[in-house]
Design brief:
alpha+beta, Tetrahydropterin Synthase, Chain A, rod-shaped, membrane, transmembrane helix, coiled coil
């Protein structure tokens, strides 16, 4: 190139490119440090020690002791201070013996390690009991009518005495689970399966809660059972189909019984209506006959009084009225022979029915 021979083979700016120099007359940049190698680690440590001697009184050896002591003090203070949340209570122990006072929510201090603290939640807690999984038989129970049920339920409780809860029972949660499961088995064993399915769950839950509370009180566990709730009741999976078939048969039975009761009530109502109608008709007939008899008796009494006043006239009148009633439908004409026969009397027309005018 044109500039390759200028200045003894230097670059275009007059700087020689030989002897490992760049175009500006300087050689390539080299790492700083001795002999062109990486920074010396011993030198860095030595300079750090010098700075530490200037900061820590007594030199490096005394400073390490102070740092260790400071770290230990901070660690001890960290262990001595604890915080109790609003939904918690704390029980301090001195050499394993619980103190009388209960730590309320806030910041507290105790002398660790001579004193320790146990934190307990005092809000409502839930303990789930029973399982519907095929591999677990925790919730399998026998009902009063010899049916196997898989009952899943929950127990809600609060801690009312933290010291009793922590130290009177070894494992409160496990104890509560065992007691609740035993109580549920007892109550389910007294009742038919239908009560647990849908009919009478509320009485079952109430009885179980009372038994669990009484048992935990005898243990002095410091717990208050607030509620027991049955979450699910199902037959074992192996017999679920047969159980559902039995349930359908029970429902059909109840439906037929209800239909029969409805038919019986309908017929019974109809029979009661007919009976009432017959009783009313009989009462009406009785009243009519009694009144007719009373009327006949009064008539007879009146006739008897008139007869006593004029026997011949009354006897003759009664005879004529009776003969009139007897002979009114007869086609014969009876004439007194003493009176004679009137010539123009239409005897042939008397027996014929009267012609209607038209």
């Amino acid at each position: 190139m044109p500039w390759s021979n200028q200045n003894g083979g230097g670059g275009p700016w007059g700087g020689g490119g030989g002897n490992n120099q760049g175009p500006w007359g300087q050689g390539p940049n080299r790492p700083r440090g001795g002999r062109g190698g990486p920074p010396d680690l011993e030198d860095i440590i030595r300079r750090g020690q010098d700075q530490l001697r200037n900061i820590v009184p007594g030199g490096f050896n005394g400073g390490v002791a102070v740092i260790i002591a400071a770290v230990l003090v901070v660690f001890w203070l960290f262990q001595c201070i604890y915080i109790v949340q609003p939904d918690e209570r704390g029980v301090e122990l001195r050499f394993g013996q619980p103190k009388e006072e209960i730590s309320t929510p806030g910041l507290h201090f105790h002398l660790w390690p001579m004193e320790t603290v146990e934190i307990v939640k005092v809000t409502v807690q839930q303990q789930n009991i029973g399982s519907t999984s095929a591999s677990s038989s925790t919730g399998l129970m026998l009902s009063g009518d010899q049916n196997i049920l898989n009952v899943e339920f929950s127990v809600f409780f609060t801690v009312i005495d933290p010291k009793a809860y922590l130290f009177n029972v070894e494992n409160p949660a496990e104890t509560l689970q065992q007691v609740a499961e035993s109580a549920m088995r007892e109550i389910i064993g007294r009742r038919p399966a239908q009560d647990a399915f849908r009919n009478n769950r509320q009485p079952i839950e109430t009885e179980v809660a009372a038994i669990v509370q009484g048992t935990m009180d005898r243990y002095n566990a410091g717990m208050a059972v607030t509620a027991v709730t049955i979450q699910d009741v199902a037959p074992p999976r192996d017999v679920a189909d047969a159980f559902e078939e039995v349930q359908r048969a029970e429902q059909d039975k109840q439906r037929l019984v209800e239909e029969a009761n409805q038919y019986a009530n309908q017929k019974l109502g109809q029979a009661r209506g007919d009976a009432a109608q017959i009783r009313e008709a009989a009462a009406a007939y009785k009243d009519r006959v009694v009144k007719e008899a009373d009327g006949e008796a009064q008539r007879f009494t009146a006739i008897n009084e008139e007869y006593s006043k004029a026997p011949e006239v009354t006897r003759k009148r009664l005879f004529l009225e009776t003969m009139e009633q007897v002979l009114k439908n007869s086609k014969k004409v009876v004439i007194d022979e003493k009176q004679g026969i009137v010539p123009y009397l239409p005897l042939n027309e008397i027996g014929k029915p009267a012609q209607q005018g038209g």
